[in-house]
Specification:
The longest helix has 33 residues, at 14-46. The chain has two helices and eleven strands, in the order H-H-E-E-E-E-E-E-E-E-E-E-E. The chain starts with a helix and ends in an 18-residue tail after the last strand. It has helices at residues 2-10, 14-46, and strands spanning 49-52, 55-58, 65-68, 74-77, 86-91, 104-109, 111-112, 117-118, 121-123, 132-135, 141-143. The chain has a three-stranded antiparallel beta sheet, with no helix packed on it. A two-stranded antiparallel sheet has the order 1-2. Strands 3-4 form a two-stranded antiparallel ribbon. A hairpin with a 5-residue loop joins strand 10 (132-135) and strand 11. By secondary structure, the protein is an alpha+beta fold.
Length: 161
């Protein structure tokens, strides 16, 4: 109440009062817009949404994270891949495929999709001329170029590293 009396005593005419009231209302609305913007940024950060220049990208659990800089340059920081054993082989295609019959070098995850074990693939233990990968536990044979199991009816493939 004292503030209102103080303002009325300082501001004598109605025109000045309206002008000050307009300035006061615009300041309050400006503060509300800033507060709403801060709330939006906070909610985007907590839900892994990042908004830059009206586009939103939703990030998954194991994807890269985008960090924005004030000059709108986007930097990408990649998360490290989990370490899995790999096996590299130089071989010729030994299953029906579109590859020409020449030497290729491929890297595969050292994992057998049939017996579900890691560190089990051996490079050409049977001495096949094209070279192949063989599981030491279940004896599954895989083409070193395509990664397909060497049975015509099989639809099992190795995972590329």
């Amino acid at each position: 109440m004292r503030i209102v009396r103080l303002i009325r005593s300082v501001i004598k005419d109605n025109y000045t009062r309206c002008l000050y009231l307009l300035v006061l209302v615009s300041l309050v609305l400006g503060f509300m817009v800033v507060a709403d913007y801060a709330t939006t940024i906070t909610s985007n950060t907590t839900t892994n949404n990042i908004t830059t220049n009206s586009t939103t990208e939703v990030l998954g659990a194991n994807t890269s994270m985008i960090i924005t800089h004030p000059n709108d340059t986007i930097y990408t920081v990649a998360e490290p891949r989990p370490k899995v054993p790999t096996v590299t082989i130089t071989a010729k295609p030994s299953v029906a495929s579109g590859y020409s019959y020449r030497w290729y070098t491929r890297t595969w995850v050292d994992y057998c999709p049939n017996c579900h074990r890691y560190n089990c693939l051996l490079i050409n233990p049977k001495g096949v001329p094209e070279r192949e990968l063989t599981c030491k536990y279940c004896s599954s044979d895989f083409c070193g170029v395509v990664g397909k199991e060497k049975y015509s009816w099989s639809n099992v493939y190795l995972r590329s590293a």
